[in-house]
Design brief:
By secondary structure, the protein is mostly helical. The chain has two domains: 8-99 and 275-299, no CATH class; 114-262, no CATH class. Helices cover 68% and strands 0% of the residues.
């Protein structure tokens, strides 16, 4: 099973058929995400409709550094938060399910001059982008090498914030030095990958400090970037195999850890969608109702305005 990727040019041209295919492809997982958080199917359906309308209105400002699915889930999260606020839930307990959707805002650096501020922001943006790229490269390499325990360990450390002691006990490693060794080799490889992509010494040094876990460096936070950029999310085809009970033991080690212990909100929503075959007819009816609203937006002169 291959997950469909929309044609961005057609979406930005407000092509009805392309947007209808977006609804057919992504509505199930978006609805599952919203329903988990709202606890109310009717409210989740409202959030889904608002999400797709927001996606149409904002597509002109789409940031290609994110995937289209990330774009949709980001809007869905915001609309879910809006709904909960309207229900006067003033204090939201942001648990593990929400860690994949931190805010996208960057904090201004403490510099003294306008040119310094601009330079700092440019460097920060490039640093975050580069860190995401090299983390993805490392994950891809590790997956290809079938080193799934190593991948679990790094996700636990970098994204979960686990201590070495908790990590070696969970994965039945020799001791804490085994965890430290895995992290050391990973950091060494990340530096090599960074050097292949970026020659700037100041940026490489900052990347090294961020990966070592020094909090925010150049406004980078590894834990934040790992979740927000979906660094280790398995392809939907692997999740489909998990649902079907046909996922091989090696990949299953990581996928189950990623879903059950890291509680990735994207992947859990995808699993809910893949497991909901009994709701397919209801979902199809909902998609057609939602599309009526989307179609009106597409045909409106204001349809391409930011939302």
């Amino acid at each position: 099973m291959s997950d469909w990727t929309p044609d961005l040019d057609r979406l930005q041209a407000l092509d009805n058929e392309e947007w209808h295919e977006v609804e057919r492809t992504f509505s199930g997982r978006l609805l599952a995400y919203a329903e988990r958080r709202c606890g109310d199917l009717q409210a989740a359906e409202d959030v889904l409709q608002e999400t797709l309308l927001g996606a149409v209105r904002g597509i002109g400002n789409f940031d290609p550094s994110y995937s289209f699915e990330q774009y949709l889930f980001g809007i869905c999260r915001n609309r879910t938060v809006d709904h909960l606020r309207r229900r006067k839930t003033r204090t939201m307990q942001v648990g593990a399910d929400e860690e994949g959707f931190p805010g996208l805002e960057f904090l201004a650096l403490d510099t003294q001059t306008p040119s310094g501020i601009v330079r700092g922001r440019e460097l920060s943006a490039r640093a975050c982008e580069l860190l995401a790229e090299i983390l993805r490269d490392w994950v891809s390499e590790t997956w290809a090498q079938e080193e799934f325990v190593r991948l679990c360990v790094l996700e636990a450390l970098f994204h979960g914030g686990w201590r070495n002691r908790d990590t070696w006990e969970r994965f039945d490693l020799r001791d804490e030095t085994a965890v430290a060794g895995i992290k050391f080799r990973a950091l060494k490889r990340l530096r090599q990958l960074a050097a292949m992509r970026e020659s700037g010494g100041d940026l490489l040094a900052a990347l090294g400090r961020a990966a070592e876990g020094e909090g925010r460096v150049l406004d980078m936070d590894v834990r934040d970037i790992w979740g927000r950029c979906r660094i280790s999310c398995p392809d939907r085809t692997w999740l489909a195999q998990l649902v079907a009970g046909s996922l091989p033991e090696g990949p299953s080690t990581f996928v189950r850890f990623h879903v059950d212990e890291m509680r990735c909100p994207w992947c859990r929503a995808n699993l809910d969608d893949l497991s909901g075959a009994d709701r397919a007819e209801e979902l199809e009816s909902l998609i057609e109702r939602v599309h009526e609203s989307t179609l009106r937006c597409l045909q409106s002169p204001a349809g391409d305005s930011p939302g």
